[in-house]
Write a sequence for this structure.
């Protein structure tokens, strides 16, 4: 049976997630905190972009329920990459980099959505995998030439298949 | 094509934001959730690793924000070990 989607509720949830996750990552990463700020306007545009992609996705695949978390992760990551809401505070500062902070935040945001509700011990064990760092680094580098949201969803889906199976159900 | 015309085209493609959206309130809510979540992230990790998770201590935190805090605590631990 087709689920009626409350777009306003989705918009609010994604905005809150985006701003909340930004606060968390900024608190953990001094490089981000000292070099970039999150534009409210561009963050809101990223969420509108996400909602447009969401509508296109459910139309294209005739999805009748809410989409799964790895798809949300893919579309949100792609939307951040498209709108680049992180802006340099000082473009001439030593820590300034061309187009990397947005990719870093976009990737962690996708990972956070994938791991929603997961056992924190499991998350820590995933991070302790010795191959995590090269995988993360390759993934991050690949975002400099952004894949589509759907392609990203497949990558996040593979991670969910391995570690966060409970999140493969619709949100 | 003159630059200003191209700029007009680009700006017309920018999404229209809903007029009723109170972004300041949403940010305030998100900051509060993030603040609560950061303070309990390490506690949640410790509870799980010691085998006695207390679900009530993290039931109120929003899922993805809490997951981000958990990832960040794991990241911090991995980088500092």
């Amino acid at each position: 049976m087709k689920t009626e989607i409350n777009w306003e509720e989705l918009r609010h949830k994604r905005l809150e997630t985006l701003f909340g996750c930004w606060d968390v990552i900024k608190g953990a990463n001094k490089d981000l905190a000292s070099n970039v700020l999150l534009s409210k306007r561009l963050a809101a545009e990223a969420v509108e972009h996400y909602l447009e992609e969401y509508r296109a996705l459910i139309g294209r695949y005739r999805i009748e329920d809410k989409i799964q978390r790895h798809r949300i992760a893919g579309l949100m990551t792609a939307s951040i990459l498209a709108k680049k809401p992180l802006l340099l505070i000082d473009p001439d500062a030593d820590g300034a980099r061309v187009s990397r902070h947005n990719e870093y935040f976009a990737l962690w945001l996708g990972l956070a959505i994938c791991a929603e509700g997961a056992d924190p011990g499991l998350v820590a064990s995933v991070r302790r995998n010795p191959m995590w760092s090269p995988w993360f680094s390759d993934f991050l580098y690949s975002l400099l030439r952004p894949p589509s949201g759907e392609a990203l969803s497949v990558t996040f889906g593979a991670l969910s298949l391995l570690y966060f199976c409970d999140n493969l159900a619709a949100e | 094509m003159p630059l200003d015309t191209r700029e007009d085209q680009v700006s017309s493609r920018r999404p229209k934001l809903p007029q009723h959206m109170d972004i300041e309130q949403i940010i305030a809510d998100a900051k509060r959730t993030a603040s609560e979540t950061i303070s309990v992230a390490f506690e949640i990790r410790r509870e799980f690793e010691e085998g006695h998770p207390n679900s009530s201590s993290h039931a109120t935190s929003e899922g993805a924000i809490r997951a981000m805090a958990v990832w960040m605590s794991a990241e911090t631990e991995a980088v500092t070990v």
Summary: The longest helix of chain B spans residues 23-49. Residues 54-61 of chain B have pLDDT under 50 and may be disordered. Chain B is about 70% helix and 0% strand.
